[in-house]
């Protein structure tokens, strides 16, 4: 009778309710339908046990750091640094777009924040140099998903809390996949640059490297503080997030003398985003509790066994399910709904929890550039004024490149696991 939850949820979605209310309301009704209503008395305890996780404290702090960075002029400084490094290459501004996303990823960990910031600044510059709007918008959306892969990653914090997996190991494991994704996008951009004769920046347009690097140092120090402090054992991810907020504030003051009113707006935005995520966690934890009572994970494991799916077949099926789910669900919702149910079966079949976390987080972020929802597509479309469906068509080649990178990560786990294993983090 737990299947009442998705059926009732589908009906409630038509009412326009927020997803947290839809999941929560459908779950409570499913408790009655399954004859498990007596367990509702301890449901609040189950919900708070899922929220009361130390690792989750890092999430609002990293969100706040990214919000402060957006308001402190850091994006423009990072764009100028990227121009100084790769601007002279053919298709230079396309490479700048990707490299800026790498820099930004090390600060905010959010694809939506990245796409909003870069769309507002770099897309107009690409248009002025002769790039067509669909291409400029598409590469901006495609490169934005580097944000949730390169540490610090809000999505990985969420996964680590759900599965009890080391967030530190997840952060370190995401470095090589994130750089691999950036490299693949740069190769794709180079192909389009040769085919469509995209311009390179002139010597006069490219800023001087060393003065630009010196000015960017306050911003570049933040990812080094975060990753270095975690790797060296000086800070937990939560403590690193708090240090990132302080560093972001000082960087914002150094660049544009960020005002108190802007800090208040950043706090408000952080409270809204964090509150919505925690509401989703609360609602989905109720559904997970009902699933445990109904032995749903065991049923899934038995079904997999009956179908004769081995580790490889199940991993392929898992990725197909997550790809499709990412197209219609927000990333936190899909993570909270699917990971506790489907990931344990893969781990029982021998999948490494760290590798699985990187693959599933990477997989779900692809939904941000996949219709019909596509959060990053919506942001880029709104900021640049391009038609949503035209943007969705233009981003498709980049999406296929990213799916190919995902396939490589699934097939070669060592790409993900080499760095955390080398640093002795696999036993955490």
Explain what you see.
- The protein contains 21 helices and no strands.
- By secondary structure, it is an all-alpha fold.
- It has one domain (36-422).
- α4 (58-71) runs parallel beside α13, α9 (154-163) crosses α18 (353-365) and α11 (175-196) crosses α20.
- It is globular, with a radius of gyration of 22 Å.
- The relative contact order is 0.15.
Topology, please?
Blueprint: H1 4-13, H2 19-33, H3 43-51, H4 58-71, H5 74-86, H6 92-105, H7 111-128, H8 133-144, H9 154-163, H10 167-173, H11 175-196, H12 209-231, H13 237-256, H14 260-293, H15 296-307, H16 311-328, H17 331-348, H18 353-365, H19 375-384, H20 388-411, H21 413-422
Helix pairs in contact: 1-2, 2-14, 3-14, 4-13, 4-14, 5-6, 5-12, 6-7, 6-8, 6-11, 7-8, 7-19, 8-19, 8-20, 9-17, 9-18, 10-21, 11-20, 12-13, 14-17, 15-17, 16-17, 16-18, 17-18, 18-20, 20-21
Task: Please tag this protein with its features.
428 residues; mainly alpha; 21 helices; 76% helix
Strand and helix order: HHHHHHHHHHHHHHHHHHHHH
Structural class: mainly alpha
Number of helices: 21
How many structural domains can be distinguished in the coordinates?
1
Low-confidence residue ranges: none
Helicity range: over 70%
Rg, please?
22 Å
Give the percentage of residues in beta strands: under 5%
**Secondary structure tally: strands:** 0
Biggest sheet record? none
What value does the average pLDDT take? Answer: 82
Which word captures the global form? globular
Instruction: For the record, give the distance between the C-alpha atoms at the N and C termini, rounded to a whole number.
Output: 38 Å
